[in-house]
Specification:
By secondary structure, this protein is mainly α. It has a domain of 82 residues: Alpha Horseshoe (Serine Threonine Protein Phosphatase 5, Tetratricopeptide repeat), CATH 1.25.40. The chain contains 17 helices and no strands. The longest helix is centred in the first third of the chain and has 50 residues. Helix 8 packs parallel to helix 10. The termini are far apart. Helix content is 69%, strand content 0%. It comes from Pontiella agarivorans.
Length: 358
Amino acid sequence: MEPEKRQHLQDIYATDTTQRDDYTPQVSQEMIAERNREIRRHQLVSFALGTAVLLLGVALVFVVVREYMEIISEAEAPAPITQEYIPRYSLPSESQWVMDFPSHYADPVWNGEGERPFNSAWVKKAAFNLILAEQAMEIGEFNKAATHYENALEILPDLDGVRVPLGMAYFQQKKYDEALALLEDASDADLTFDVLNNLGAACIEAKAYDKGEEYLIRALELRPAYPEALKNQAMLYREMGKEADAVSAYEKYLDLRPQDSNTRHSFALYLTKIGNWDLAAEQLYTLTEEIKKDATLYQLLARVEMRRENNKEAIAAFQRAAQLSDPNQALNYMNDEEFDRLRGDEDYQALMRSIEER
């Protein structure tokens, strides 16, 4: 091949060295690094701008909320149209007129000149107080109820049908003497079984036992299976020292309310006090079927069984009490002199050794 043609063919496949140098690996890495730095700069600027916008938004919300709260706190609360504790819808339609009167309308004070007023306005004042008293009784505000009933009697002293509910309001506040003074002269029509029961309870507190017995008997005549009256009767007879009557009342009450463990426990203690050991044991076994982790019940049962001369049952009750109580406490209790009769029993001695080893 001629030299010129050979040279021409070689030039066709030759590489331009000036362009090749522009794409060396060193130049490419520098460009990539520069691009990465530029990206990071953009990211930092965007983050800073986003943070500033977020903080500005939070500050704006805080300012708006603070201004709103200040406006709310400065605004005067509208005067209520109705009484504060009685919603209008809770009143019968014929009684809703009381809500259109201010609370001071219940005031029974008059100037004292001449005779006590007796006119339509004065009667309306009495009715106003009666309606508020009834609503207060329904929601358990007995102090307010008593005040309104007292106002009604101040306005119209001879008004019937007020003394019994006022006495009940006194009773709920544990003002037993005031309750008795009002209720003992009530008519038979007003003395329902619950009023009579409350009168009996008030008499117990006031230590007027004979009168209390009369009221409770009358309550049970109106409703023989009345648990509350039977319980009060049991307490009354305890105070009067009528043991047989107290036991009978307790048993009747627990037949109606067998789940009342507190009263059953009180009954068991009372039976131990009067020395009725067999019935006390019966009550305690019933209690331990329901309450299985009370050491004091088993300690009492052990004492009762010992009095019944049931050594095996007494020791078993002691053992259960020891399992449920502190060992030192169990030892102190079992070292009492009244248990001297058991000390020679092998089972008792074994129990004492096991407690000492714990």
